[in-house]
Amino acid sequence: MPFQIIRNDITKVASNAIVNTANPKPVIGGGTDSAIYKAAGEKQLLAERKKIGDIAPGNAVSTPAFALNAKYIIHTVGPAWIDGSHGEREVLHSCYANSLTLAGELSCESIAFPLIATGTYGFPKAEALDIALKEIGKFLLTHEMNVILVVFDKKALELSEKLVGEIDKYIDENAIGLLREEEYKGHPSNQFRRRRIQTDKFFSESLDLLEDKYAAPDEMIFTEKICCAPSSPKSEPLSGGFMGVFGQTEKKSLDEVLQKEEDTFQQRLFRLINERGLDDVTVYKRANGNRKNFSKIRCNVDYHPKKITAIAYAVALKLDMPELLDLISRAGYTLSPTSKFDLIISYFVKSRNYDIFEINAALFEYEQPLLSS
């Protein structure tokens, strides 16, 4: 994927370029700088660094990577945090922008960043992450490159307290969770009604509530791909279709339903792209994808994506919840209020925040798979 966040030691990451948070003077500093010198070979790297001399904050220069699993080390000098009123943010923006530009000039296909200036320089981690995501996202809109943000441990990456608080609240308010056996005690209709209310809260824009007569709680079958309720002998055919996908209100026989042709995922995806007047490059870049993978979709009407890919394209198209559910259902998927991944996606879609880099940072924070096409 063009952008990913991984937990690793940056000196062990394979990439065309490794970014070093360098000391402005040609000496070995602390933190990441010290680790990179040791892994690359202190004597050789320091000799190259002395040829360059001082580096101004925000600038970026390159040296060979020597023993690292890379071609180049890009050295950039981050800002020492004072109070935020001394141009620290502007310097950090420049660190990412200049490093990415230099990597492009060096014809790099991949680059690995630490979270610059958050160690010994003390830049607030949540703000540093926000700046990193903004600059990387801006660069990837116009360039083809794999960008890796490397964090040593979970404590090294922090979302804003406000965003974490909102996501936690959303999950708490909308998650059904796995009910304990004792919670099933009581009248079946009361149990099912409670679950119906919770589910409706999660899918309020798109889910038609099932009536009690269709199923009791122990008859409900939830999977990643489908949700169905076997009907009783006296029940009538369900109307509306799950998640409002099929939109049927009249009774239809099975043969009539099967004869009705529906768009495949690929057909609906390109219909939506055309309706919104978007071009292919914009869409696959917004989906954290690349040209090669997108061309596979365009050439195959029966293309079947992974769930993270289907959702990535829904995010790229800025679909609302009913539209998202409709698109991913054509690949056999839905969202479930029992899944933390699905709840986080739902939170961002309902908040109309379609920044896939910020979404992926949140997914990483909650140890969920990242979106990519």
- H/E series, N to C? EEHHEEHEHEHHEEHHHHHHHH
* Overall spatial form: elongated
Total discrete domains = 3
Number of helical runs?
14
Residue windows where pLDDT falls under 50 for at least 5 positions: 178-197, 205-249
**CATH second-level architecture of the largest domain:** 3-Layer(aba) Sandwich
What is the top-level CATH class of the largest domain? Alpha Beta
Kindly state the percentage of residues in helix.
40-55%
Q: What is the end-to-end distance?
A: 7 Å
Structural class: alpha/beta
The CATH superfamily of the largest domain is: Leucine Aminopeptidase, subunit E, domain 1
Largest sheet: 6 strands, mixed
Structural features, described:
With 373 residues, the chain is of the alpha/beta class. It has three domains: 3-158, Leucine Aminopeptidase, subunit E, domain 1, CATH 3.40.220; 174-248, no CATH class; 265-365, no CATH class. Helices cover 42% and strands 9% of the residues. The chain has helices spanning 31-40, 42-52, 88-105, 125-140, 161-174, 188-202, 254-259, 265-275, 280-286, 291-298, 307-316, 321-329, 340-350, 356-365, and strands at residues 3-7, 17-21, 60-64, 72-76, 110-113, 146-151, 221-222, 227-228. Strands 1-6-5-2-4-3 form a six-stranded mixed sheet, sandwiched between helices. Strand 3 (60-64) and strand 4 (72-76) form a beta hairpin. It is elongated and about 80 Å long.
Top keywords for this entry?
about 375 residues; Leucine Aminopeptidase, subunit E, domain 1; 3 domains; 14 helices
